Amino acid sequence: MAATVLPVPFERSPGYWANVWRRFRREKLAVFAGCVLLAILLMAIFAPYIAPKDPTFGTMLRRLRPIGTPGFPLGSDELGRDMLSRLIYGARLSLFMGVVPVFIAFFIGSVIGIAAGYIGGAFNMVVMRIIDVFFAFPSVLLAIALSGAMGAGITNGLISLTVVFIPPIARIAESVTTGVRKLDYVEAARASGASAFTVVRTQVLGNVIGPIFVYATSLISVSMILASGLSFLGLGVRPPEPEWGLMLNTLRTAIYVQPWVAALPGLFIFITSIAFNLLSDGLRTALDVKD
Amino acid sequence: MRSPEPILSIQGLKKHFKLPTKGFFGREKPVVRAVDGITFDVIPGETLGIVGESGCGKSTTARLIIDLIHRDAGAILFEGKAMGEALSPKEYRRHVQMVFQDSFASLNPRMIVRDIIAFGPMVHGMPQKEAEELAYSLLTKVGLDPARFAGRYPHELSGGQRQRVNIARALAFRPKVLILDEAVSALDKSVEAQVLNLLTDLKAEFNLTYLFISHDLNVVRYISDRVMVMYLGECVEIGPVDEVYAHPRHPYTRALLSAMPSMDPDKRTMEPPLAGDPPNPINPPPGCRFHTRCRFAEDVCGTVSPVPTVRGSMHFAACHIGTPGSGHSRAGETT
Question: Best interface-test mutation with A: which of B123, B149, B156, B206 has the largest number of A CBs within 10 A?
Fold first, then answer.
């Protein structure tokens, strides 16, 4: 093979992810949901600068004020703390509890699922049957059981939520990988003599990570609601820490006195989780490039 | 004529797929005998065509030879060295490469053409820069302008262009043997002809040996030096392509060739077409596997497996009719 002309500059097509981004921008609803989430994220990050008051400071004299009270734009809770400040600060923990368990589970579940899918055979059988055992429990029950057994607290809540989300992500990863593994380009890479790890890294990963990621983002809303549920039951975040689920819990006794104030944390949970779902829907459409 | 030292020697290759069903409590699991004891040699520089009906084990044979599926029995010798023993599978794969049928599924949709071609050499330790330059020069060789195509993704190429990339990818290993598994079957006729001509040119330039698997008898005749006919996981006939096409010895080969339409009305086929489907490879018929569909079948065919016999130079067929003393009433006749 003699040295022929070597054209160093060549036309490079826009990559797959550039295509995905172009398609995603066409999904108006998903872009809007993304903006809402960005706003909530910024609100969480800059909470100390935005919040008008200390979220943990309350006076018993100003308990359960209605929405629109001077000094309490969104009313006050059962201990006289400013609802607006608590909702702003609450975004921190609620987002954290929604995103972090899914994020960890995304890594662990992907590794388990891709390994099971790629290796196949008896290894796949054993791993997936173990995963199936976790599916026997409803996810809420499993989260409650795990964090109940380990005791209340943020860390234990985080661990139990992560454990809850590993099986579904692993299952999706396994099914996507099983589909990709049989394709000829993976076979061709195997026929090159490359090690299994190289083949997975260069050929499989890029083709399976998209669908797994989309599925994982759809779990964030579930995670937020489960985390809120744990807090509501007194298993997750402990008072006086502001967290939307916990706020919903402590305010429930006031539902007949100030129904609108009591419903506010629920509204925030609802908006955030639905925004995550819409974002995930848009991502799925954008990733579904027919190559 | 003594045949030269084979570059690739396939000896008694077997693959039985176990079916997962009905294997409960000690009952014997059903086994598909996809490839059941195939022996043949590939001579350096030749093109060996492999033909047969769908499901006869052509593609399984290809995947066995390149070790994508592991064989149950048999040996693969490359230049006299047994793969897996004297020759490591990784080393072996540098010499024997494969072009897949589905040009779309065989290219990673997330990689640009240059990286697809450069991947193989890099696995074998070539520095990235060098591998990329090799990719450019190979793209030129397969008739694609690197300046236009090196940076493209597979979905931006046509079927013929993708198959050219596939060929370049296989050639990047600088192999000695190339297995072409239905490599042109999915292309339309004009593109197929272009790719066939390209293959012919590349073979001369790189001193390649081809193993050309196809169901298209015309294409096999055009490109092959020798042809092997497979039926139900076995080799029924192998010989020089002109001799096999002009004087087929095995009744199955004859039936296969008669199914080939002729443009000349005087050469109308008189051979009745084959009836029915090939038998189930889970329980292949005893004796000669073809006897359930063979016009000349007699008692001996259902009990004794025919042994390949030679006629002329290197024209083998496994049929009792061509075997003197086989017990067939027409034994020893020149078929």
Answer: B123
Yes or no, beta carbons of A206 and B68 under 8 Å apart? no
Residue numbers in B near A9 (CB within 8 A): 147
Residue A97 inside a domain? The answer is yes
Work out the number of other CB atoms within 10 angstroms of the CB of residue A18: 10
Q: For chain B, give every domain's residue range.
A: 8-20+28-247
CATH number of B8-20+28-247: 3.40.50.300
Q: Write down the pTM of the prediction.
A: 0.80
Alpha-carbon torsion B186, B192, B195, B200, what sign? positive
Q: Which two tokens stand for residue B284?
A: 């292949």
Angle at B290 between CA B286 and CA B295, to 5 degrees: 120
B66–A191 C-beta distance less than 8 A: yes
CATH number, residue A273 = 1.10.3720.10
Relative to beta strand B234-240, strand B226-231 is antiparallel
Q: Is residue A26 part of a domain?
A: no
* Pairs of residues, one from chain A and one from chain B, whose beta carbons lie less than 8 Å apart: 104
One pLDDT digit (tens) per residue for chain B, 335 residues? 445 788 989 888 888 887 765 545 556 667 888 888 888 899 999 999 999 888 888 888 998 998 888 888 888 999 888 888 888 888 898 899 999 888 888 898 888 899 999 999 998 888 998 999 999 999 999 989 888 888 888 888 888 899 999 999 999 999 999 999 888 888 888 888 989 999 999 999 999 999 999 988 889 999 999 999 998 888 889 999 998 988 888 888 888 888 877 777 776 666 667 777 777 777 778 888 888 888 888 888 888 888 888 877 788 888 888 777 777 777 766 65
